[in-house]
Amino acid sequence: MASLEIVLGSIRLANPVIIASGILGTTAEGIKLLYDMGAGAVVTKTTTLKSKPGNPNPTVVSTPSGLLNSMGLPNPGIEEMSREVAAACSEGVPVIGSVAGSSINEFIEVAKRFEETGVVGVELNISCPHEKVGLIGQDCRLTYQVVKSVKDSIKTPVIVKLTPNVTDIVEIALEAEKAGADALTAINTVKGMAIDVNTGYPILGNRFGGLSGPAIKPIAVRCVYEIYESGVKIPIIGVGGISNWRDALEFFMAGASAIQIGTALMKGYQVIEKIKRGLIRYMKKNKLENLNQIIGLSHKRC
Amino acid sequence: MASLEIVLGSIRLANPVIIASGILGTTAEGIKLLYDMGAGAVVTKTTTLKSKPGNPNPTVVSTPSGLLNSMGLPNPGIEEMSREVAAACSEGVPVIGSVAGSSINEFIEVAKRFEETGVVGVELNISCPHEKVGLIGQDCRLTYQVVKSVKDSIKTPVIVKLTPNVTDIVEIALEAEKAGADALTAINTVKGMAIDVNTGYPILGNRFGGLSGPAIKPIAVRCVYEIYESGVKIPIIGVGGISNWRDALEFFMAGASAIQIGTALMKGYQVIEKIKRGLIRYMKKNKLENLNQIIGLSHKRC
Amino acid sequence: MHTPRVCKILKIESEAENIKTIYFKDRRISRRIVPGQFIMVWIPGVDEIPMGVSHIGLNSELAITVEAVGEATERLCSLKEGDVIGVRGPYGRGFSNPGLNNLVIGGGTGMAPLIPLIELCVREGVKVNVLLGGRSLNRTPFIEKLSSIFKSTPSSFRVTTEDGSYGYRGLVTDLLEEIVLKNNFERVYACGPELMLRKIYEYSIERKLPLEVSLERYIKCGVGVCGSCYIGPYRVCVEGPVFKINELEKIRDVFGEWTRDAAGRLISLK
Amino acid sequence: MHTPRVCKILKIESEAENIKTIYFKDRRISRRIVPGQFIMVWIPGVDEIPMGVSHIGLNSELAITVEAVGEATERLCSLKEGDVIGVRGPYGRGFSNPGLNNLVIGGGTGMAPLIPLIELCVREGVKVNVLLGGRSLNRTPFIEKLSSIFKSTPSSFRVTTEDGSYGYRGLVTDLLEEIVLKNNFERVYACGPELMLRKIYEYSIERKLPLEVSLERYIKCGVGVCGSCYIGPYRVCVEGPVFKINELEKIRDVFGEWTRDAAGRLISLK
Ligand SMILES: Cc1cc2nc3c(=O)[nH]c(=O)nc-3n(C[C@H](O)[C@H](O)[C@H](O)COP(=O)(O)OP(=O)(O)OC[C@H]3O[C@@H](n4cnc5c(N)ncnc54)[C@H](O)[C@@H]3O)c2cc1C
Ligand SMILES: Cc1cc2nc3c(=O)[nH]c(=O)nc-3n(C[C@H](O)[C@H](O)[C@H](O)COP(=O)(O)OP(=O)(O)OC[C@H]3O[C@@H](n4cnc5c(N)ncnc54)[C@H](O)[C@@H]3O)c2cc1C
Ligand SMILES: Cc1cc2nc3c(=O)[nH]c(=O)nc-3n(C[C@H](O)[C@H](O)[C@H](O)COP(=O)(O)O)c2cc1C
Ligand SMILES: Cc1cc2nc3c(=O)[nH]c(=O)nc-3n(C[C@H](O)[C@H](O)[C@H](O)COP(=O)(O)O)c2cc1C
Ligand code: FES
Ligand code: FES
Question: Does A63 reach chain B within 8 Å, measured CB to CB?
């Protein structure tokens, strides 16, 4: 009957609703709870070698149908994070470790440490629009180098998270694939900013931030569609503004094999189960047995 | 006392609220009406040498806090458009002619024809995300060539409209300035798409479209801020998601010398006067005499 | 909001040669629509075109009546029950509320948006005279539908055909004077070919009739931003498609004279 | 919605050494807030920090009571009337409605979010005992404010100072047993240093008191997405800052033991 099970290369998940990096995946208990609430997998907060306090507050501000954030990758460092992740993994949670660093060696080191904890995959964050790491995902050569180096160093599947803040996302996607990426995540946030007109101050402590939420959904759908259309062979994980099962379907049809949700969790953990229930209902109504039957459907429609 | 008058290089406007290209500026009477409704100037629909029917419908679809369009630059060609524009100009409307073409010669030819009609400026559309012309604004060299060639051919001020669909908008802005641009407009729409999940069809006839409206405001503010911060000397016209005077202020503070509105006109022509009244009220309350006093204010706040 | 809502075709009726009425349900349109407003109809993979609404029923039931004149309308007419279309709207301004004595003039498929108005008159118990013009019996829609509505007052419903295959032989405008002289109309509504409307307009000016007509221009956005549908200073998709006689005065230079194609080029209507 | 709304400072009162109460107006917060919920306070160009609300008045008037402990709080305390701050909220879950007999325990500035709760009790005419602990007379806020509230029932308001400069010399927890034995509390509310709260919690478990405490963790987003404020499985900004005794049970391994810094590193509270 209708099954939500999906396969991302060698990663097999009971359902396609993954929690996006930076959304609550900071502690063992937090990760475990997200899984208990129904997530197919949980991506950790992006982790670096050493701890980082992140940018000064305000780090989050609302915009029309969206959220701007400039967290600045706060994290306790891989040493402490790997303890949290190991604890979650040992309870059977499929965790994906999000990795960043200011050098290739740092990427490798953090990825290796995640591998030791038993994660099902690592996701390379080369796409945070308001941090230095974001520059990697805007450059073909750097993307290739970072992805290749990490791939050569670990056996765990490597997912590469792409930024929409580029002239041509397909170019970067193809480069990541060439470097051996096992899957792609599209998209990270869109670079933006907000100014308080009473004082003239940029609201975010870091001035610039990343836009997420429903506002960016059309951009994210377009990116997934373009990447799929380009003939990339590896699976795509769609993310950006997904709030309900219809949004999720849009991404599957555009070519995503799984989805991530972030900002939508602002409305509560129930959004996870709601999306799953909606998908199941849709599949039953349309007599679908698995999601593969609709992945990329839109490409057959033109 | 509080005056809304602004100066864009050699263009002097009674108020800074300009109607963005593609928004109703298709006929003499339409342009005249927008001016009568209070606009400081009206940018025409982008015009090419020969007439173009545009893309197949649907050409517009709603998204959360935004609009996706893939009009495809329908226009009657410069021959007919110049008659409409001349009629509007002869009634004293400050018109800006939006120019596009598939060759440098076409850009020059259309710009020249606009010049003859008496426009106060031309705006080069090298930024439409779903059309070929959009590729120009994604490339430094092409941008330089197109802008320089047009500058060398006409005396009328040349405004260059930039796309946010690039890795680094500042790079393109600087190139346009170097080529002699008299002002910059930022931003054109953000490339996006929407899929109907009942049928799997991309909704827009052209599949891809450009996202406008409140959803993109944080992106547009960021672009204007970045360009201003880069030290560009020519004035910037801010556009993207402006629906009220507070939005307009945000752009002035980010560094815009004037603003354009597009999607907001969906709510009615009154939005023009509302924005102007709001700005005047704000200026009086804060004892400002002209908008120069707040242009770029946010840059002094960090 | 302005996204096509996909719905199943519930029923299809043939109205005349190449003219079909397609039934579907949409709550959003149904809850807001006023006779005379239009909707955008999406035929996935083909086109999206403006259509009047020819039936406003119970339980959100609606219908459009389509004359096959080109690719999109032909595809619409070839759809079957159970196929899907997308709809968004309603858009524009509809007809004003009927008065105590009303005249409705439709030319061919132009009668479509007038049907719900006629039904409204009947429901409200106000007087309504209907004048339907067509080329010939089998190319004129709604004859049956209207005949059954006016079973008890047949004299209120008159048909003209150009070839005389049904009713009066000639044009609707030929019968206008006769009907107008016998009545004191509080409202005159018309929809159909623009040249016919222009004639009715000239006559209405002369007789000081309170005319409202529904016009067509090339619709793209439907929401008043693209500037495709201008007729003079008016946007058909916002200020129209229904215009009152005083508005028609302001566009007398273009009304019945010029339209614009998809590119915005002026096209003579003559 | 989650954008700081800039408002003018209407009035500033000094509560104690380095502790000030700052008055401002915000309709959105005022219309929704329940005592115990918190807000985010933006000091433009400096920081945005979480604050309890120490006054919920008429006409959207609100106040925060700030103890200067670092950059942001020092800047807040140095602001003058007419200066501006930004506020967003209210966030999280507040205290439950008071019962017929209530005990309120505040440690220093921890009394801030409890003041509106006490005022609510007084307004509703339900019994309330207040226990306020501080280091010394001039470092303990709200003594005057609470004394005037309890003018007519002075025995309901007890103060303890560590140096004995006012009231009982010692800790609030020293007086707890005495007060609890004399009363039958339907609610016990506490806010203050976490180690104090832990002690009250242990005692409440023993005595089966219906305790609710307000906790602090590092708040960044305030809207439940960033994972900065976890205490066990709870987000202080959504499920907190007020926790009931059964919830405290579930986090007994961390409550009073561990907190996390801005980076998310575990920090011992001992
Ligand atoms: C407000 C309004 C209400 C209408 N109501 C009805 C109705 O109830 N029944 C009906 O049969 N027809 C109606 N029409 C006309 C209908 O929209 C056109 O016949 C249809 O769009 C033709 O499309 P096509 O692809 O079949 O023809 P094409 O071969 O593309 O064109 C045939 C003719 O239709 C015109 N046309 C094409 N696309 C559009 C468009 N997007 N907007 C306007 N005109 C267009 C062309 O300019 C041409 O004159 C209405 C039009 C408008 C503006
Ligand atoms: C729900 C809640 C309600 C609060 N209510 C009040 C109140 O009513 N009055 C009051 O004076 N204080 C209150 N606080 C504490 C107040 O937020 C901190 O004292 C303040 O953030 C310190 O900022 P700083 O820059 O002055 O100090 P810093 O030098 O930055 O730090 C001093 C201490 O404050 C902590 N801190 C700094 N920033 C934050 C933050 N964003 N979130 C949480 N802790 C932080 C640090 O971890 C450190 O322990 C509350 C805290 C929370 C979580
Ligand atoms: C508060 C917040 C923090 C985020 N932190 C990270 C992060 O640490 N690493 C990362 O790769 N993406 C991060 N993101 C981006 C999200 O993972 C996701 O790509 C983006 O928010 C778009 O999805 P959404 O619209 O569902 O939120 C963050 C997003 C938000 C809102
Ligand atoms: C329907 C529509 C048509 C447009 N056509 C053009 C165009 O022809 N040329 C152009 O440079 N920009 C065009 N744009 C982009 C706008 O000029 C503007 O840059 C963009 O919509 C962002 O502003 P807004 O959010 O205020 O709409 C169009 C936008 C819309 C919505
Ligand atoms: S159809 Fe776009 S303005 Fe009317
Ligand atoms: S502060 Fe971000 S989740 Fe609580």
Answer: yes
